[in-house]
Glycogen synthase
Amino acid sequence: MRVLFAASECVPFVKTGGLADVVGALPAALAAEGVEVRVLLPGYGPVMAALEGAATLGPIETPGGPARLVVGRAAGLDVVALDAPALFDRPGGPYSDTAGRDWPDNHLRFAALSHAAAALAQGADRDWRPDVLHLHDWQTGLAPVYLHQRTGPRPATVLTIHNVAFQGLFPASVIGPLGLDRSGFAQDGYEFWGKVGFLKGALVHADRITTVSPTYARELMTPEFGMGLDGLLRHRRTVVSGILNGIDTRAWDPETDPALPRPYSARAMAGKAAARRALERRLGLAAGMPGPLLAVVSRLTEQKGLDLLAEVLPRFLARGGRLALLGTGATGLEAAFRAQAEADPDRVAVVIGFDEALAHLIFGGADAICIPSRFEPCGLTQLYGLRYGCLPVVARTGGLADTVIDANPAALATGVATGIQFAPVTAAALGDALDRLCDLWADRPAWRRTMRRAMGQPVGWEVSAAAYRALYDGLAG
Ligand SMILES: Nc1ncnc2c1ncn2[C@@H]1O[C@H](COP(=O)(O)OP(=O)(O)O[C@H]2O[C@H](CO)[C@@H](O)[C@H](O)[C@H]2O)[C@@H](O)[C@H]1O
Protein backbone atom coordinates (compact mmCIF):
# COMPACT_ATOMS: atom_id res chain seq x y z
CA MET A 1 0.00 0.00 0.00
CA ARG A 2 1.48 3.32 -1.12
CA VAL A 3 0.12 6.59 0.21
CA LEU A 4 1.18 10.07 -0.82
CA PHE A 5 0.71 12.69 1.89
CA ALA A 6 0.58 16.32 0.83
CA ALA A 7 0.87 19.07 3.43
CA SER A 8 2.19 22.57 4.01
CA GLU A 9 4.08 21.86 7.23
CA CYS A 10 5.96 18.98 8.79
CA VAL A 11 8.29 18.58 11.76
CA PRO A 12 11.25 18.96 11.96
CA PHE A 13 11.40 21.30 8.93
CA VAL A 14 8.62 23.81 9.42
CA LYS A 15 5.94 24.10 12.09
CA THR A 16 3.34 26.63 13.09
CA GLY A 17 1.08 24.19 14.91
CA GLY A 18 -0.21 20.67 15.37
CA LEU A 19 -0.53 19.89 11.65
CA ALA A 20 3.28 19.71 11.46
CA ASP A 21 3.45 17.21 14.35
CA VAL A 22 0.89 14.93 12.73
CA VAL A 23 2.43 14.99 9.25
CA GLY A 24 5.89 14.36 10.71
CA ALA A 25 4.91 11.48 13.02
CA LEU A 26 2.13 9.55 11.28
CA PRO A 27 4.27 8.15 8.40
CA ALA A 28 6.47 6.11 10.78
CA ALA A 29 3.39 4.73 12.55
CA LEU A 30 1.87 3.82 9.18
CA ALA A 31 5.11 2.11 8.14
CA ALA A 32 4.59 -0.24 11.09
CA GLU A 33 1.18 -1.04 9.55
CA GLY A 34 2.83 -1.91 6.24
CA VAL A 35 1.94 1.39 4.55
CA GLU A 36 4.64 3.11 2.48
CA VAL A 37 4.22 6.87 2.86
CA ARG A 38 5.83 9.68 0.91
CA VAL A 39 5.29 13.26 1.99
CA LEU A 40 4.94 16.03 -0.59
CA LEU A 41 6.05 19.35 0.91
CA PRO A 42 6.77 22.83 -0.43
CA GLY A 43 10.50 23.19 -1.07
CA TYR A 44 11.10 25.57 1.83
CA GLY A 45 14.78 26.25 2.60
CA PRO A 46 14.94 23.82 5.55
CA VAL A 47 13.32 21.04 3.46
CA MET A 48 15.72 21.44 0.54
CA ALA A 49 18.71 21.63 2.91
CA ALA A 50 17.72 18.38 4.67
CA LEU A 51 17.18 16.26 1.54
CA GLU A 52 19.73 13.48 1.17
CA GLY A 53 20.38 11.42 -1.94
CA ALA A 54 17.96 13.66 -3.77
CA ALA A 55 16.94 12.84 -7.33
CA THR A 56 15.06 15.17 -9.61
CA LEU A 57 11.90 13.66 -11.06
CA GLY A 58 11.72 16.38 -13.65
CA PRO A 59 10.28 19.79 -14.32
CA ILE A 60 6.59 20.50 -13.86
CA GLU A 61 4.53 23.49 -14.86
CA THR A 62 2.31 24.75 -12.01
CA PRO A 63 -0.09 27.67 -11.62
CA GLY A 64 2.74 29.33 -9.68
CA GLY A 65 5.21 28.89 -12.57
CA PRO A 66 7.83 26.29 -13.43
CA ALA A 67 9.07 24.00 -10.66
CA ARG A 68 10.93 20.75 -10.08
CA LEU A 69 9.92 17.68 -8.10
CA VAL A 70 12.80 16.38 -6.00
CA VAL A 71 12.67 13.04 -4.14
CA GLY A 72 14.91 12.10 -1.23
CA ARG A 73 15.19 11.13 2.43
CA ALA A 74 15.04 13.81 5.09
CA ALA A 75 14.81 13.35 8.87
CA GLY A 76 13.74 9.73 8.48
CA LEU A 77 10.93 10.56 6.03
CA ASP A 78 10.56 9.89 2.31
CA VAL A 79 10.01 13.38 0.99
CA VAL A 80 9.00 14.79 -2.36
CA ALA A 81 9.81 18.50 -2.40
CA LEU A 82 8.17 20.95 -4.76
CA ASP A 83 11.29 22.94 -5.56
CA ALA A 84 10.13 26.40 -6.63
CA PRO A 85 12.41 28.97 -4.95
CA ALA A 86 10.34 31.91 -6.21
CA LEU A 87 7.36 30.53 -4.25
CA PHE A 88 8.87 28.89 -1.18
CA ASP A 89 12.42 30.00 -0.47
CA ARG A 90 11.78 33.19 1.54
CA PRO A 91 12.39 34.52 5.03
CA GLY A 92 9.38 34.48 7.37
CA GLY A 93 6.82 31.76 8.01
CA PRO A 94 5.10 29.29 5.69
CA TYR A 95 2.03 31.51 5.28
CA SER A 96 3.17 35.00 6.22
CA ASP A 97 6.14 37.36 6.18
CA THR A 98 8.27 38.28 9.17
CA ALA A 99 5.74 41.00 10.10
CA GLY A 100 2.91 38.43 10.16
CA ARG A 101 1.22 39.59 6.94
CA ASP A 102 -0.12 36.78 4.70
CA TRP A 103 1.99 36.33 1.57
CA PRO A 104 0.04 38.02 -1.25
CA ASP A 105 0.58 34.99 -3.53
CA ASN A 106 -0.61 32.28 -1.13
CA HIS A 107 -3.25 31.23 -3.67
CA LEU A 108 -0.51 30.55 -6.23
CA ARG A 109 1.83 28.89 -3.73
CA PHE A 110 -0.72 26.38 -2.50
CA ALA A 111 -2.39 25.88 -5.86
CA ALA A 112 1.10 24.87 -7.03
CA LEU A 113 1.35 22.40 -4.14
CA SER A 114 -2.12 20.99 -4.92
CA HIS A 115 -1.23 20.81 -8.60
CA ALA A 116 1.95 18.84 -7.81
CA ALA A 117 -0.05 16.44 -5.62
CA ALA A 118 -2.48 15.81 -8.47
CA ALA A 119 0.41 15.28 -10.92
CA LEU A 120 2.08 12.73 -8.63
CA ALA A 121 -1.28 11.01 -8.13
CA GLN A 122 -1.50 10.57 -11.87
CA GLY A 123 1.98 9.16 -12.34
CA ALA A 124 4.47 12.07 -12.45
CA ASP A 125 6.82 9.59 -10.77
CA ARG A 126 6.59 6.50 -12.93
CA ASP A 127 8.37 4.37 -10.31
CA TRP A 128 6.11 5.31 -7.44
CA ARG A 129 2.39 5.65 -8.08
CA PRO A 130 0.31 6.09 -4.93
CA ASP A 131 -2.74 3.93 -4.20
CA VAL A 132 -4.19 6.74 -2.10
CA LEU A 133 -3.60 10.50 -2.08
CA HIS A 134 -3.99 11.79 1.48
CA LEU A 135 -4.34 15.58 1.68
CA HIS A 136 -4.09 17.72 4.78
CA ASP A 137 -6.01 20.98 5.22
CA TRP A 138 -6.85 23.77 2.74
CA GLN A 139 -3.33 24.21 1.42
CA THR A 140 -3.71 20.96 -0.54
CA GLY A 141 -7.45 21.29 -1.09
CA LEU A 142 -7.34 22.03 -4.81
CA ALA A 143 -5.78 18.62 -5.58
CA PRO A 144 -9.13 16.78 -5.73
CA VAL A 145 -10.50 19.67 -7.82
CA TYR A 146 -7.68 19.39 -10.35
CA LEU A 147 -8.11 15.60 -10.45
CA HIS A 148 -11.84 16.09 -11.05
CA GLN A 149 -11.01 18.38 -14.01
CA ARG A 150 -8.74 15.81 -15.62
CA THR A 151 -9.31 12.58 -17.44
CA GLY A 152 -7.34 9.40 -16.87
CA PRO A 153 -7.02 7.05 -13.94
CA ARG A 154 -6.49 8.51 -10.50
CA PRO A 155 -6.09 7.09 -7.00
CA ALA A 156 -8.66 7.53 -4.24
CA THR A 157 -8.36 10.76 -2.26
CA VAL A 158 -8.66 11.46 1.46
CA LEU A 159 -8.84 14.95 2.91
CA THR A 160 -8.13 15.43 6.61
CA ILE A 161 -9.52 18.54 8.29
CA HIS A 162 -7.15 19.66 11.02
CA ASN A 163 -8.91 22.96 11.53
CA VAL A 164 -12.01 24.13 9.68
CA ALA A 165 -11.29 27.74 10.71
CA PHE A 166 -8.66 27.90 7.97
CA GLN A 167 -10.43 27.51 4.62
CA GLY A 168 -8.17 29.11 1.99
CA LEU A 169 -10.64 31.69 0.61
CA PHE A 170 -9.62 33.91 -2.32
CA PRO A 171 -11.44 36.31 -4.67
CA ALA A 172 -13.04 34.91 -7.83
CA SER A 173 -10.38 36.70 -9.90
CA VAL A 174 -7.95 33.83 -9.12
CA ILE A 175 -10.01 31.30 -11.11
CA GLY A 176 -8.11 31.93 -14.37
CA PRO A 177 -4.60 32.15 -12.89
CA LEU A 178 -5.15 28.93 -10.92
CA GLY A 179 -6.29 27.03 -14.00
CA LEU A 180 -9.67 26.18 -12.52
CA ASP A 181 -12.64 25.30 -14.70
CA ARG A 182 -15.20 28.07 -14.47
CA SER A 183 -18.00 25.51 -14.34
CA GLY A 184 -16.70 24.48 -10.89
CA PHE A 185 -17.45 27.95 -9.52
CA ALA A 186 -20.81 26.81 -8.20
CA GLN A 187 -22.41 25.59 -5.02
CA ASP A 188 -21.60 21.97 -5.88
CA GLY A 189 -17.98 22.91 -6.71
CA TYR A 190 -15.19 25.00 -5.22
CA GLU A 191 -17.26 28.18 -4.84
CA PHE A 192 -17.94 29.38 -1.28
CA TRP A 193 -20.08 32.49 -0.80
CA GLY A 194 -18.73 34.19 -3.92
CA LYS A 195 -15.13 33.21 -3.29
CA VAL A 196 -12.83 30.39 -4.35
CA GLY A 197 -12.60 28.00 -1.40
CA PHE A 198 -9.70 25.56 -1.40
CA LEU A 199 -11.12 23.56 1.49
CA LYS A 200 -14.64 23.72 0.08
CA GLY A 201 -13.42 22.22 -3.21
CA ALA A 202 -11.74 19.38 -1.38
CA LEU A 203 -14.82 18.64 0.72
CA VAL A 204 -16.90 18.37 -2.45
CA HIS A 205 -14.50 16.19 -4.44
CA ALA A 206 -12.47 14.06 -1.99
CA ASP A 207 -13.54 10.42 -1.77
CA ARG A 208 -13.24 10.38 2.02
CA ILE A 209 -13.13 13.14 4.61
CA THR A 210 -11.60 12.63 7.99
CA THR A 211 -11.00 14.86 10.93
CA VAL A 212 -8.84 14.36 13.96
CA SER A 213 -11.30 13.20 16.62
CA PRO A 214 -14.71 11.49 16.68
CA THR A 215 -16.33 14.28 18.69
CA TYR A 216 -15.10 16.99 16.28
CA ALA A 217 -16.42 14.92 13.36
CA ARG A 218 -19.89 15.21 14.91
CA GLU A 219 -19.45 18.85 15.92
CA LEU A 220 -18.38 19.83 12.38
CA MET A 221 -21.83 18.91 11.14
CA THR A 222 -23.46 21.54 13.36
CA PRO A 223 -23.83 25.26 12.54
CA GLU A 224 -22.06 26.10 15.81
CA PHE A 225 -18.79 24.45 14.74
CA GLY A 226 -18.99 23.95 10.97
CA MET A 227 -18.03 27.52 9.98
CA GLY A 228 -20.39 27.48 7.05
CA LEU A 229 -19.39 24.01 5.85
CA ASP A 230 -21.68 22.05 8.18
CA GLY A 231 -24.39 21.65 5.54
CA LEU A 232 -21.94 20.20 3.02
CA LEU A 233 -20.49 17.89 5.66
CA ARG A 234 -23.96 16.69 6.64
CA HIS A 235 -24.63 16.04 2.96
CA ARG A 236 -21.44 13.96 2.77
CA ARG A 237 -21.81 12.38 6.20
CA THR A 238 -21.47 8.79 4.94
CA VAL A 239 -17.84 9.48 3.95
CA VAL A 240 -16.91 11.57 7.02
CA SER A 241 -15.19 10.04 10.04
CA GLY A 242 -13.04 11.04 13.01
CA ILE A 243 -9.70 9.38 13.74
CA LEU A 244 -7.99 10.58 16.90
CA ASN A 245 -4.50 12.06 16.68
CA GLY A 246 -1.63 10.45 18.51
CA ILE A 247 1.76 11.89 19.41
CA ASP A 248 5.31 10.86 18.59
CA THR A 249 6.11 9.00 21.81
CA ARG A 250 9.82 8.94 21.00
CA ALA A 251 10.15 12.70 20.61
CA TRP A 252 7.85 13.23 23.60
CA ASP A 253 9.20 10.88 26.27
CA PRO A 254 10.16 12.11 29.75
CA GLU A 255 12.51 9.11 30.09
CA THR A 256 14.73 10.29 27.21
CA ASP A 257 13.86 13.97 26.64
CA PRO A 258 17.10 15.98 26.21
CA ALA A 259 15.27 19.19 27.20
CA LEU A 260 14.81 17.88 30.77
CA PRO A 261 17.56 18.08 33.40
CA ARG A 262 16.91 14.48 34.53
CA PRO A 263 14.79 11.71 33.04
CA TYR A 264 11.68 10.56 34.89
CA SER A 265 8.84 8.09 34.58
CA ALA A 266 5.69 7.10 36.47
CA ARG A 267 7.86 4.73 38.54
CA ALA A 268 10.67 7.20 39.28
CA MET A 269 9.34 10.74 39.59
CA ALA A 270 12.31 12.61 41.10
CA GLY A 271 13.20 14.03 37.69
CA LYS A 272 9.85 15.85 37.56
CA ALA A 273 10.79 17.91 40.64
CA ALA A 274 14.16 18.64 39.01
CA ALA A 275 12.35 19.80 35.87
CA ARG A 276 10.14 22.08 37.98
CA ARG A 277 13.19 23.68 39.61
CA ALA A 278 14.86 24.14 36.22
CA LEU A 279 11.69 25.73 34.84
CA GLU A 280 11.36 28.06 37.87
CA ARG A 281 14.97 29.18 37.44
CA ARG A 282 14.63 29.64 33.70
CA LEU A 283 11.47 31.75 34.02
CA GLY A 284 12.32 33.52 37.29
CA LEU A 285 9.31 32.08 39.15
CA ALA A 286 9.34 31.91 42.95
CA ALA A 287 9.67 28.41 44.43
CA GLY A 288 7.74 26.90 47.35
CA MET A 289 4.24 28.20 46.54
CA PRO A 290 1.28 26.31 48.02
CA GLY A 291 -0.61 25.64 44.76
CA PRO A 292 0.02 24.02 41.37
CA LEU A 293 2.16 25.46 38.58
CA LEU A 294 -0.17 25.82 35.59
CA ALA A 295 1.17 26.03 32.04
CA VAL A 296 0.02 27.21 28.63
CA VAL A 297 1.80 26.28 25.37
CA SER A 298 -0.35 27.61 22.57
CA ARG A 299 -1.10 29.84 19.66
CA LEU A 300 -2.86 32.83 21.22
CA THR A 301 -6.02 32.96 19.10
CA GLU A 302 -9.77 33.20 19.62
CA GLN A 303 -9.97 29.39 19.17
CA LYS A 304 -7.80 28.66 22.18
CA GLY A 305 -9.98 30.59 24.68
CA LEU A 306 -7.04 31.99 26.61
CA ASP A 307 -8.83 35.32 27.11
CA LEU A 308 -10.90 33.35 29.64
CA LEU A 309 -7.73 32.38 31.51
CA ALA A 310 -6.55 36.01 31.56
CA GLU A 311 -9.87 36.85 33.20
CA VAL A 312 -9.76 34.24 35.98
CA LEU A 313 -6.02 34.27 36.61
CA PRO A 314 -6.18 36.53 39.73
CA ARG A 315 -8.58 34.05 41.36
CA PHE A 316 -6.20 31.15 40.61
CA LEU A 317 -3.17 33.08 41.90
CA ALA A 318 -5.07 33.87 45.10
CA ARG A 319 -5.30 30.12 45.72
CA GLY A 320 -1.52 29.84 45.58
CA GLY A 321 -1.22 28.92 41.91
CA ARG A 322 1.40 30.10 39.42
CA LEU A 323 1.37 30.40 35.63
CA ALA A 324 4.04 29.71 32.98
CA LEU A 325 2.83 30.72 29.52
CA LEU A 326 4.58 30.19 26.17
CA GLY A 327 2.77 31.44 23.10
CA THR A 328 2.40 33.89 20.25
CA GLY A 329 -0.56 35.38 18.47
CA ALA A 330 -3.08 38.14 19.08
CA THR A 331 -1.29 41.26 20.23
CA GLY A 332 -4.04 42.17 22.70
CA LEU A 333 -3.73 38.83 24.50
CA GLU A 334 0.07 38.95 24.46
CA ALA A 335 -0.12 42.37 26.11
CA ALA A 336 -2.69 41.22 28.69
CA PHE A 337 -0.53 38.31 29.83
CA ARG A 338 2.65 40.42 29.75
CA ALA A 339 0.96 42.96 32.03
CA GLN A 340 0.04 40.21 34.49
CA ALA A 341 3.63 38.94 34.47
CA GLU A 342 4.97 42.44 35.13
CA ALA A 343 2.51 42.94 38.00
CA ASP A 344 3.40 39.62 39.67
CA PRO A 345 6.73 38.29 38.31
CA ASP A 346 7.14 35.77 41.15
CA ARG A 347 4.00 33.96 40.13
CA VAL A 348 3.40 34.69 36.46
CA ALA A 349 5.98 34.10 33.71
CA VAL A 350 5.16 34.87 30.09
CA VAL A 351 7.37 34.03 27.11
CA ILE A 352 6.12 35.41 23.80
CA GLY A 353 7.64 33.37 20.99
CA PHE A 354 7.86 29.88 19.53
CA ASP A 355 10.34 27.66 21.37
CA GLU A 356 10.18 23.89 20.97
CA ALA A 357 12.80 23.08 23.65
CA LEU A 358 11.13 25.36 26.21
CA ALA A 359 7.80 23.68 25.42
CA HIS A 360 9.33 20.31 26.41
CA LEU A 361 10.72 21.75 29.67
CA ILE A 362 7.32 23.28 30.46
CA PHE A 363 5.49 19.95 30.10
CA GLY A 364 8.19 18.37 32.27
CA GLY A 365 8.22 21.03 34.97
CA ALA A 366 4.61 22.17 35.23
CA ASP A 367 1.86 20.43 37.21
CA ALA A 368 -1.02 21.14 34.85
CA ILE A 369 -1.66 22.40 31.30
CA CYS A 370 -4.61 24.69 30.61
CA ILE A 371 -6.53 24.30 27.32
CA PRO A 372 -9.81 26.28 27.46
CA SER A 373 -10.47 26.03 23.70
CA ARG A 374 -13.76 27.20 22.19
CA PHE A 375 -13.29 24.42 19.66
CA GLU A 376 -10.47 21.89 19.34
CA PRO A 377 -10.35 19.39 16.46
CA CYS A 378 -8.06 17.15 18.51
CA GLY A 379 -5.39 19.04 20.41
CA LEU A 380 -1.94 17.64 21.04
CA THR A 381 -0.83 19.54 24.13
CA GLN A 382 -3.24 17.64 26.39
CA LEU A 383 -1.61 14.44 25.09
CA TYR A 384 1.89 15.81 25.83
CA GLY A 385 0.55 16.81 29.25
CA LEU A 386 -0.75 13.29 29.98
CA ARG A 387 2.56 11.74 28.97
CA TYR A 388 4.59 14.14 31.14
CA GLY A 389 2.32 13.97 34.22
CA CYS A 390 1.20 17.56 33.61
CA LEU A 391 -2.55 17.20 34.19
CA PRO A 392 -4.75 18.65 31.46
CA VAL A 393 -7.46 21.17 32.40
CA VAL A 394 -9.59 21.20 29.26
CA ALA A 395 -12.81 22.51 27.76
CA ARG A 396 -15.21 19.64 27.00
CA THR A 397 -15.07 19.97 23.23
CA GLY A 398 -13.67 18.11 20.21
CA GLY A 399 -10.66 15.91 20.82
CA LEU A 400 -10.22 17.33 24.32
CA ALA A 401 -13.49 15.63 25.29
CA ASP A 402 -12.25 12.37 23.76
CA THR A 403 -8.87 12.18 25.50
CA VAL A 404 -9.23 13.43 29.08
CA ILE A 405 -11.29 11.77 31.83
CA ASP A 406 -12.64 14.32 34.29
CA ALA A 407 -11.63 13.92 37.92
CA ASN A 408 -15.17 13.99 39.27
CA PRO A 409 -15.82 12.11 42.52
CA ALA A 410 -16.99 8.95 40.71
CA ALA A 411 -13.97 8.89 38.37
CA LEU A 412 -11.60 9.45 41.30
CA ALA A 413 -13.29 6.71 43.32
CA THR A 414 -13.09 4.20 40.49
CA GLY A 415 -9.54 5.25 39.63
CA VAL A 416 -9.96 6.39 36.04
CA ALA A 417 -9.53 10.19 36.19
CA THR A 418 -6.72 11.78 34.15
CA GLY A 419 -7.44 15.53 34.30
CA ILE A 420 -10.17 18.14 34.61
CA GLN A 421 -12.88 18.92 32.05
CA PHE A 422 -15.24 21.85 32.12
CA ALA A 423 -18.27 23.14 30.22
CA PRO A 424 -19.60 25.54 29.08
CA VAL A 425 -16.53 27.38 27.82
CA THR A 426 -16.91 30.45 30.02
CA ALA A 427 -14.64 32.25 32.44
CA ALA A 428 -16.87 31.18 35.34
CA ALA A 429 -16.64 27.48 34.42
CA LEU A 430 -12.87 27.72 33.89
CA GLY A 431 -12.53 29.44 37.27
CA ASP A 432 -14.43 26.56 38.91
CA ALA A 433 -12.25 24.02 37.06
CA LEU A 434 -9.09 25.69 38.37
CA ASP A 435 -10.58 25.61 41.89
CA ARG A 436 -11.11 21.85 41.44
CA LEU A 437 -7.51 21.57 40.25
CA CYS A 438 -6.33 23.28 43.46
CA ASP A 439 -8.53 20.96 45.57
CA LEU A 440 -7.06 17.90 43.86
CA TRP A 441 -3.55 19.33 44.30
CA ALA A 442 -4.18 19.68 48.04
CA ASP A 443 -5.06 15.96 48.29
CA ARG A 444 -1.50 14.77 47.64
CA PRO A 445 -2.15 10.99 47.41
CA ALA A 446 -5.08 11.52 44.99
CA TRP A 447 -2.98 13.94 42.90
CA ARG A 448 -0.08 11.47 42.66
CA ARG A 449 -2.39 8.63 41.66
CA THR A 450 -4.02 10.77 38.98
CA MET A 451 -0.64 11.90 37.66
CA ARG A 452 0.70 8.33 37.39
CA ARG A 453 -2.49 7.19 35.67
CA ALA A 454 -2.26 10.08 33.20
CA MET A 455 1.30 9.05 32.36
CA GLY A 456 0.13 5.53 31.58
CA GLN A 457 -2.50 6.54 29.03
CA PRO A 458 -1.98 5.22 25.48
CA VAL A 459 -1.29 8.44 23.56
CA GLY A 460 0.83 7.05 20.70
CA TRP A 461 -0.23 6.53 17.11
CA GLU A 462 -0.71 2.73 17.20
CA VAL A 463 -4.50 2.57 17.35
CA SER A 464 -5.10 5.41 14.91
CA ALA A 465 -2.49 4.24 12.42
CA ALA A 466 -4.43 0.98 12.19
CA ALA A 467 -7.62 2.97 11.61
CA TYR A 468 -6.00 4.90 8.73
CA ARG A 469 -4.70 1.62 7.28
CA ALA A 470 -8.25 0.23 7.36
CA LEU A 471 -9.53 3.38 5.66
CA TYR A 472 -6.90 3.11 2.89
CA ASP A 473 -7.62 -0.61 2.43
CA GLY A 474 -11.30 0.14 1.97
CA LEU A 475 -10.53 2.75 -0.66
CA ALA A 476 -7.76 1.06 -2.61
CA GLY A 477 -9.51 -2.31 -2.55
N1 LIG B 1 4.77 29.13 21.31
C1 LIG B 1 4.99 27.84 21.08
N2 LIG B 1 6.23 27.32 21.23
C2 LIG B 1 6.46 26.01 21.00
N3 LIG B 1 5.51 25.14 20.62
C3 LIG B 1 4.27 25.61 20.44
C4 LIG B 1 3.94 26.97 20.66
N4 LIG B 1 2.62 27.14 20.40
C5 LIG B 1 2.15 25.95 20.04
N5 LIG B 1 3.14 25.02 20.05
C6 LIG B 1 3.05 23.61 19.67
O1 LIG B 1 2.24 23.54 18.50
C7 LIG B 1 1.42 22.39 18.57
C8 LIG B 1 -0.03 22.81 18.65
O2 LIG B 1 -0.83 21.73 18.33
P1 LIG B 1 -2.36 21.63 18.70
O3 LIG B 1 -2.82 20.33 18.19
O4 LIG B 1 -2.52 21.83 20.16
O5 LIG B 1 -3.06 22.89 18.02
P2 LIG B 1 -3.20 23.56 16.55
O6 LIG B 1 -4.38 24.43 16.70
O7 LIG B 1 -1.94 24.18 16.14
O8 LIG B 1 -3.49 22.36 15.54
C9 LIG B 1 -4.62 22.00 14.72
O9 LIG B 1 -4.24 20.72 14.14
C10 LIG B 1 -3.93 19.75 15.12
C11 LIG B 1 -3.42 18.51 14.39
O10 LIG B 1 -4.44 17.76 13.82
C12 LIG B 1 -5.11 19.45 16.01
O11 LIG B 1 -4.70 18.59 17.06
C13 LIG B 1 -5.66 20.75 16.61
O12 LIG B 1 -6.85 20.50 17.34
C14 LIG B 1 -5.91 21.77 15.51
O13 LIG B 1 -6.41 23.00 16.01
C15 LIG B 1 1.88 21.60 19.77
O14 LIG B 1 2.92 20.74 19.39
C16 LIG B 1 2.42 22.70 20.69
O15 LIG B 1 3.34 22.20 21.62
Q: What stands out?
A: DSSP finds 19 helices and 18 strands in the chain. The domain at 270-455 is CATH 3.40.50.2000 (Rossmann fold). Residues 106-121 form the longest helix (16 residues).
